[in-house]
Structure formats: C-alpha cells, structure tokens
Amino acid sequence: MSPRRPNWSEAKRKALANLEQITEKEDAAITADALNDDDNPPADDLIRRRGRPLSANPKQAIKLRIDPDVVEHFKAEGPGWQSRMNKALRRAAGL
Predict the structure, then answer these.
(1) What would the pLDDT profile of 35-75 be if each residue is shown by its tens digit?
(2) Are 11 and 18 in contact (CB under 8 A)?
(3) Which residue has the higher pLDDT, 89 or 21?
(4) What span, in angstroms and rounded, lies between the C-alpha atoms of 15 and 9?
(5) 74 close to 85: Cβ distance less than 8 angstroms
C-alpha cells in the first residue's frame, strides 16, 4: 500500500481490537478527560443537521388515495399544492 494512502480497513480492525481491551473504568476516564479538554469539543456540537429545522407541530406522513382530477386541481396552482390541500381539508373538517 502507498505511504500516502493509509489502509483504513486495517486501521479500523486495530482500533476495534484495542477497543475490546479497554475496561469500563478506562473508558470512563478517557471520556471524562475528553469532555474536560477545551480543545476537544464533543462532536455533536460540530455536526450540523441538514434539511429543515424540526417543527414543533410536525405533519404526519400517510398514504392517501385521492382522485386524479382533485390532485391536478391543486397541482395546477403551482408549488405549495400539498399545503393548500391540507388547508382545504382542515376547512372541510371544521378545524
């Protein structure tokens, strides 16, 4: 293997083998030291979630069979047709 490209599968195998040898006490000490290191923030703080932010009132995904002409009516008005259909259903239900 080239000195420029490490063998990641071998590195992973070695890391997992070493991980099996670590005791619970050692793992707790390593974790505590890592959390107290200002130069080593938890990875959760570094990872940015992709997509839309979580809604306080999320929609429920369902499978619903609608007549094609009804779907075309809402789609013909352009983007946002699902929200308009939801609004029409809420009005029809008296919500």
Answers:
(1) 888 887 777 656 776 777 888 888 888 999 999 999 999 99
(2) no
(3) 89
(4) 10
(5) yes
φ, ψ of residue 74 to 5 degrees: the values are -70, -40
pLDDT at 2: 53
The residue extents of the domains of the chain are 10-46
Q: Positive or negative CA dihedral for 69, 75, 77, 83?
A: positive
Q: What is the 3-state secondary structure (H, E, C) of the chain?
A: CCCCCCCHHHHHHHHHHHHHHCCHHHHHHHHHHHHHCCCCCCHHHHCCCCCCCCCCCCCCCCCCCCCHHHHHHHHCCCCCHHHHHHHHHHHHHCC
**Is the Cα dihedral 75, 78, 83, 88 positive or negative?**
negative
Contact 33, 26 (CB under 8 A): no
